[in-house]
């Protein structure tokens, strides 16, 4: 039941983001997910500050991890669709929990 609630919440976030920002291509969604998945395996998701040597998606993930449970987290999710899909990838890889 808990997983179903998480899935519904994520679907609502994505729907809202698509209304605000438009849609992504499947290729870009897949690229973001694979980047976050690989970053987790390599230990690059560490709440660290912006690093110009890391990809924009890894920097976005670290920003979300750093700002989780703050007002900045919500502001980041509202910034652009990249952050929404990075958040979904973080949830999918169990790197962050779903916000309520």
Describe the structure.
- The protein has 100 residues and is mainly α.
- 68% of the residues lie in helices and 0% in strands.
- The protein is built from five helices and no strands.
- The chain has helices at residues 2-21, 26-42, 56-67, 71-77, 81-92.
- Helix 2 crosses helix 5 (81-92).
- The longest helix is centred in the N-terminal third of the chain and has 20 residues, at 2-21.
- It is globular and about 30 Å long.
- The two termini are 15 Å apart.
- The mean pLDDT is 84.
Mean pLDDT: 84
Helix percentage: 55-70%
Please give the number of β-strands.
0
Structure classification = mainly alpha
> How many distinct helices?
5
**Helix and strand string, N-terminal first?**
HHHHH
- Beta-strand content estimate: under 5%
Extract low-pLDDT stretches.
Answer: none
Distance between the termini: 15 Å
Q: What best-fitting shape do the alpha-carbon axes yield? A: globular
Radius of gyration: 13 Å
Summarize the biggest pleated sheet: none
